[in-house]
Automatic annotation (TrEMBL), chains A, B:
CDD domains: AGAT_like (cd06451)
Gene name, Swiss-Prot/TrEMBL: AGXT
InterPro entries from the UniProt entry: Aminotrans_V_dom, Aminotrans_V_PyrdxlP_BS, PyrdxlP-dep_Trfase, PyrdxlP-dep_Trfase_major, PyrdxlP-dep_Trfase_small, SP_NH2Trfase/AEP_transaminase
SUPFAM superfamilies, sorted: PLP-dependent transferases
Protein name in UniProt: Alanine--glyoxylate aminotransferase
Length: 423, 423
């Protein structure tokens, strides 16, 4: 188009950008040369970004403290600069501390906790191998799904949502199915259960099986000792107790797991999470680092800061804080006549508390009311616990008595204002 | 441990934290109960985070402008909040504009460009299907690797690094191999080639084949018209022309690609990038959104801002700017007696310029000198171009005449000070 035609087209584009006309007014694609614009600029992107302030007391993401927010605003450096490798080395040390492990193969996945779950299964399991998955909530379901996709022979150990596994339960499963890998969730955030881990490692190793533990919702808030407890693969997410924006997921592999990975017959299905490549990128293999993918530089800055804050506070203090504030919340809930969903006090997860939806109430009306009137997020259930529970998270920076008081006040208000027996 | 023993242990831990003793001094794991700390706090995480300021004129990541840095420091909201869905909808509109497409199945992957490459191949290709990969640099090699991992029958169309494909080359390959998908790189950042795309879509469709284009290093800097050019799958990265921190990757699928995805016989190997789940999470399927994974909330804020800045500038102006500044750079390089690596002027990539390593110089000495003396990143080659080229990136916010002057000045200085004929 030249001259007048071009001028008319520009006017149309400008009008479309202001939202005054619809796309169908524009000339159709087939009659245009490839130097002409077809899709106009969306008007909504001419408006400023709008993000409300919220107190995030759901199962994650949690709020980020100012120090971590500041890290998110730093200028970028290159993913292969020596200063970046130094920061990645610091992240590794921080993960080794948080996981209580000396594993050399320790790093952060460039994705969410689900990406780390895939990294764990993709690297350690080959087509046709038997895996045993403990299912008592949504995370076991997801681990089963992923294992099936890669052609594993998936066996399930099932329990109702809200219950945990005994060593006897697990031993029965191991003896029956003889899996190469056993998956269990430490912090079952959909049900609010903290699975006891002592003894599971020895049991799995007795049956020549790797122990894979999901600690996305528990790490930093509940004691875990990767080496002492004989955990072979452990991963977590950044956006829970660490208070780091979602997008990275710490993971570590024992020597036993490393050996299985590096003696595979086939390549893992994914290049992106291939532990051969990632071990090199993270300096875990003593070879010069070569380019694999462009790591999320800013997220690594934030993760480094989240781990540094945990180090400064100390694991012991963090565990104690989560325990104390969860107890304070539980007492307050009971005073309001609200029932805790997990019956066995010993296995209640201190980072995410589940309560039974109060009788006669619509759970969604409660969460919406609290969001609208108090700018606080608490959430409903997930997977098998949907419709049964409400979930309140107290994680890292958010685990304070003041926040417990705020959420109890909001809940009390919601119970008074939401319509009992409406449904 | 109790009393004195516990006190001694604490002192040891403190000493280890200060880096005064080595881990081997600490009691061994087997003699301890699980309530005791084994791995001490790493001293280096007690130090402040240190990130140098750099002008990033390599092939990416590029520098982030203040508006995008500010988005990185915003407080988090939930990945399932309505305000987040609004921002995701805005991102979709921004991608549709940047890609020049009306495709409904348009979204951002929660990972790097490589993760998007996997998402494209994992969803559209099934085990045993024939794919044809155009290899003229590192990206074709990676696409071949990923395709092999998922059991595709991989055929390759090879060209030396620095060359592009003609329609005749491609038609010969399509006729011979009859693939279900053809992969080609638009911005071959390892060689500096901008692959012409006109006519490729029609050609692929004539052979009943999907056209997959990698535009990680070119999108926003080189004209591309997804719908008009008949591209079936197109993806890019956030950290190039968009100047957004790495960690998200825009992707879009044509109706033809969508149909192939949703008539698969088997599930894609990955749940994390399963387009059935992601289509729902991104509101592309008209069903109520359900939880899939926790998206990288902060990265989405930044991506929204990067797309908004492109919208404000307009694609036409962005393309012109990249073209003008690249030409200005090329002229300056020639004045310094430096040879451009890509012989054919018509296919030189304006976002990443490759130059032949000046005769008698060690490329690594040049990049190190420029980094050390001028705080500017330029890089060596990648994959097949390693040792042959130096790469200078001018992307988005970084594509300015002032930056061209800075890098030319730095290069001139390096050529005077680095040791010619040392190697």
């Amino acid at each position: 188009m030249q001259g007048a035609a071009k001028g008319t087209f520009s006017l149309l584009l400008q009008a479309a950008a202001r939202g005054r006309i619809y796309l169908s007014v524009l000339p159709c694609a087939r009659s245009m040369s490839s130097s002409e614009m077809l899709i106009p600029a969306p008007a909504v992107l001419m408006q400023p970004l709008s993000v409300p302030e919220r107190l995030m007391l759901g199962p994650g993401p949690s709020n980020t403290p100012p120090r971590i927010q500041a890290a998110g605003a730093l200028q970028l450096i290159g993913h292969m600069h020596p200063e970046m490798f130094q920061i990645m080395d610091e992240i590794k040390l921080g993960i080794q501390y948080a996981f209580q492990t000396r594993n050399k193969l320790t790093l952060a996945i460039s994705g969410s906790g689900h990406c780390a779950m895939e990294a764990a299964l993709f690297n350690t399991v080959e087509h046709g191998e038997v895996v045993l998955i403990a299912v008592n909530g949504v995370w076991g379901e997801r681990a089963s799904d992923i294992s099936e996709r890669i052609g594993a022979d998936v066996r399930r150990l099932e329990k109702p949502s809200g219950e945990s596994y005994t060593l006897k339960d697990v031993e029965k499963g191991l003896a029956e199915h003889k899996p190469c890998l056993f998956f269990i969730t430490h912090g079952e955030s959909s049900s609010g259960v903290a699975q006891p881990l002592d003894g599971l490692g020895d049991l799995c190793h007795k049956y020549n099986c790797l122990l894979l533990v999901d600690s996305v919702a528990s790490l930093g808030g509940v004691p875990i000792f990767m080496d002492q407890q004989g955990i072979d693969i452990l991963y977590t997410g950044s956006q829970k107790v660490l208070n780091v924006p979602p997008g990275t997921a710490p993971i570590s592999f024992s020597e036993r797991a490393r050996k299985k990975i590096f003696s595979r017959k086939t390549k893992p299905p994914s290049l992106y999470v291939d532990m051969g490549w990632l071990a090199n990128y993270w300096g875990c293999d003593d070879k010069p680092r070569v380019y694999h993918h462009t790591g999320p530089v800013t997220n690594f800055f934030s993760l480094r800061e989240g781990l540094a804050m945990l180090v400064e506070q100390s694991l012991e203090k963090s565990w104690q804080l989560h325990k104390d504030n969860a107890l304070y919340l539980h007492q307050g809930l009971e005073k309001l006549g609200i029932k805790l969903f997990v019956k066995d006090q010993a296995v209640r997860l201190p980072t995410v508390t589940t309560i039974s939806v109060p009788e006669g109430y619509d759970w969604m009306e409660i969460t919406s009311y609290i969001m609208k009137k108090h700018s606080i997020e608490i959430t409903g259930g997930l997977g098998p616990s949907t419709g049964k529970v409400l979930r309140i998270g107290l994680m890292g920076y958010n685990s304070t008595r003041a926040n417990v008081d705020r959420v109890l006040h909001a809940l009390k208000d919601a119970l008074q204002h939401c319509h009992k027996n409406k449904i």
